[in-house]
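Hi V.,

You were right to ask for the full record rather than a summary. Here it is.
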Amino acid sequence: MKKITKRDVALVTGASEGIGFEIAKSLSLNGLKVLMISRNLKKLRKSIKLIENLGGDPEFLCGDVSKKATPVKAIKKVKNLGNLKILINNTGGPITGNILNLKEKNWEQAIHNNLMSVVRFSKLAIPIMIKNNFGRIISILSTVVLEPSPNMVLSATSRAGV
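Predicted structure:
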């Protein structure tokens, strides 16, 4: 990556715990301004405090990535912070179940959360990255994409589209 400046921003979804939190923490401690997104405000605030205690200075946005409005709000906030350089698409998995016991609403939620969120965030981020002459988009998936199991059909299907 080019030299990091104080105006360089990374946007990380699913950032309040797990892989998303660790990525956000690492980016923040390495000098990027990080916008952390999660739908759980309590977990998000706890994660922000942990990173701040280590010397990072992240920002946050509470929002559900499966909703159309969240990527728009996030990109608007990123523009106020600086130059978007990195987008990390990371979401929690959908519920488990097999094709016979899952309802259509479960399928719709999985598609919006795991596939359409990546499409929406990426579609908004790419023009900014082109304008900045730099950008990286990393989408965190799951091994079930390569080795599906009957009870992980929602995750395998929605993530394979990415």
